Amino acid sequence: MSFDFSGKKVLVTGAGKGIGRAVAEKLSQCGCKVYVLSRTKSDLDSLVDDNQNITSIVADLCEWEETKTKLEKLEVLDGLVNNAGISGHEYAAVDCPREYIYKVLDTNLMSAINCSQIVAKKMIEAKVKGSIVNVSSIGSVGAFPKGLPYHMSKAALDMVSKQFALELGPHGIRVNSVNPSLVMTPMIREVIDKGIHVDEIITSRSSISRLLELHEIVNPILYLLSDLSTMVTGQAHVVDGGCLSNITTKA
Ligand SMILES: NC(=O)c1ccc[n+]([C@@H]2O[C@H](COP(=O)([O-])OP(=O)(O)OC[C@H]3O[C@@H](n4cnc5c(N)ncnc54)[C@H](OP(=O)(O)O)[C@@H]3O)[C@@H](O)[C@H]2O)c1
User: Fold this and answer.
1) Distance 14 CA to ligand 1 centre (A)
2) Which of 33, 35, 154, 223 is catalytic?
3) Structural domains of the chain sorted by starting position, each given as residue range(s) with its CATH number in brackets
């Protein structure tokens, strides 16, 4: 699918690997000036080497003030993709330590609030009609074993989208979630390596019996960032091959 982002500027968090990296690459190919933020410098260096119009920002989003200082230096943006996240499927709900819950919430939820505040304030001041996309999950509406902090974080992220959409709408700024089922990324490989076969579970529940390809979540994110979706805001966009709508199991 082709989009035109010429003259636009977008920040993608968690762009070193997986979905965020693919979004940054596609935006760059579509003429966008892209700011990529992540923790591992070498990931960002290779992204900058291989793509035009990409500028890297090394930061740990869990460091609220440090992130704020770095992002406040950026020019006014047209778009933000709050994509950074960790899986957080380590403990049964009854055993999950407070510190671990906070770590997942800091990474998956609070970071999106921090980045949205910084980017949106500048958009408002400059009267830019921008778009913010929060990368949530089907885990925002369905539970999975040992998923207490992850699923809480994504359910709350969907409400962050709605709340910001309500308050930023009058300024012409749209805010949406995308909620993918499963894409094979380093995060998912790590989960499978721990013996949790999420790929088989998702495939067996999806009416389109396969995982998502990266472009099948990248394109919806670009659609939400683009002027093709100018009246779409405050929504959670499930992209799951029919997984959530299925109440049957395959024999
Ligand atoms: N893959 C899926 O099937 C799937 C499904 C539903 C939702 N999602 C969501 O999609 C998003 C991306 O997932 P992914 O599978 O692409 O993950 P991934 O392959 O693990 O990539 C995550 C990226 O986020 C960065 N990151 C993590 N914590 C960070 C922090 N504190 N500060 C800055 N950067 C940080 C990582 O950097 P480092 O490697 O340097 O830490 C990495 O570049 C996540 O929000 C995830 O919950 C994914």
Assistant:
1) 5
2) 154
3) 9-239 (3.40.50.720)
H helices of the chain, in order, are 18-29, 41-50, 64-72, 98-105, 111-126, 148-168, 186-193, 198-205, 215-225
CA of 12 from ligand 1 middle (Å) equals 11
Angle between helices 41-50 and 18-29 (to 10 degrees): 20
Q: Is 122 a catalytic residue?
A: no
Please tell me the predicted confidence (pLDDT) of residue 251: 56
Cβ(117) to ligand 1 under 6 A? no
pLDDT tens digit sequence for 158-211:
999 999 999 999 999 999 999 999 999 999 999 899 888 999 999 999 999 999
pTM: 0.98
Contacts of residue 154, defined as CB under 8 A and 6 or more positions apart, other chains included, come to 108, 136, 137, 139, 140, 179
C-alpha neighbours within 13 Å on the C-beta side of residue 52: 5
103 is catalytic: no
Question: Is the C-beta atom of 85 inside 6 A of ligand 1?
Answer: yes
Residue 77: CA count within 13 A, CB half-sphere:
26
**What's the one-letter identity of residue 71?**
L
The dihedral over CA atoms of 49, 50, 52, 55, expressed in degrees to the nearest 10, equals -50
